Amino acid sequence: MPFGEREDELWGVLKPIFRPRVSGDPNIKYAKHLLNQSGPFRPVPYANPRREDSRAVLGRVVRKSPEVLVKVTGRKKGAEHLGAHLSYIGRNGEIAIETRDGELISDKSEVQQIAQEWSDALYWRQRATVSGVAMVFSMPEGTNPDTVRQAVRAAADRMIGDNHDYVMALHTDTPRPHVHLTVQAEGLDGQRFDPRREDLFNFREAFAEELRTRGVECEATPRWSRGQGRAGTSMALAQMREKIRRGVSRQPTEADLRQAREALQVASGKAQPPVFVTRAKERWDSTRQEYERAADRLDNSKDASDRELAKDLRAFLKDRPSVETVPDRVLKDAQSRLKQMRERGEHPPDRPPRSR
């Protein structure tokens, strides 16, 4: 049963749509972009993965297939900074670093030579310039590490091509197998490797596609399409929280203290929830409606697999009556603490959260 125009609507809630941002006079910017082949008219540096059937994507979402993770972890400026990063991902020679040509390097001097070569072309610039862009590709615990490495290499070859050099290193020292991919910023044609939000999503899709061709069930969808609030946590903050959970540190982060103060104000009726929380709930309500319409259409299909997908989709929605964000979880804790304070005869603090 073809969805027709409805398929595009369903696809819109499964995958993000990226639009160029325009500010000021749009006519002037439009003319400049058209003349300079920039902005929305710039040549696309990374090949877009092919668009699949929305049913296949929807099926993986409702089956809760693992989601791939791709993020930029840093931009390294100069040979010294880049060399320190390459030493880190190679664990100072304990882990072999794999080049774009498939060569394995563990010698420290060869690693530093790469950092120097990537930075030499930039020495004439007055300001410190990015020599390499560090990325990480990760999968949940239980995924075969070598399969992850193969998928990252295939995705890198496909998305980056021959214009930029790169090195990669597989890490298995955490439950989640992950690959550190570091890309030379300056391309052979002078173009800079500077992946943005849309580019990172394309990397996610390419990574997920390569994993599926190797028998790993996974998907690359935005959090809101799965009924989850935005993560909004930097790697540094995540590492600090992990130290607290392990008992290595007992000092709470300033971000957590501020969030707790704000939640207590909301729980006591002296403040409103953050705007992004309200927007996340509104977006999930709209997404739920589109999913429900899709379930109705699938129910009317003559294909038994479509009707089974409709059943799975409704079970998926039943488990997610509303999206829960991080502030929501903190608010629950604040409401519990507020109740305990009142039972003890104490009054909630009147002081509003500190602003920075």
Commentary on this structure:
The protein is an alpha+beta fold. The chain has 2 domains: 66-218, BirA Bifunctional Protein, domain 2, CATH 3.30.930; 235-343, no CATH class. It is 48% helix and 10% strand. The protein has 12 helices and 6 strands. The protein has helices spanning 5-14, 26-36, 54-62, 78-89, 108-120, 145-160, 197-213, 235-246, 254-267, 275-299, 304-318, 326-343; strands at 69-77, 97-99, 104-105, 130-138, 166-171, 178-184. It has a 6-stranded antiparallel β-sheet with strand order 1-4-6-5-2-3, sandwiched between helices. Helix 3 (54-62) packs across helix 11 and helix 6 (145-160) crosses helix 7. It starts with a helix and ends in a 13-residue tail after the last helix. Mean pLDDT is 79; it is low at 352-356.
Observed structural traits:
disordered C terminus, Endonuclease_MobA/VirD2, globular, 12 helices, 10% strand, alpha+beta, 2 domains, 48% helix, 6 strands, Relaxase, BirA Bifunctional Protein, domain 2, 356 residues, six-stranded antiparallel sheet
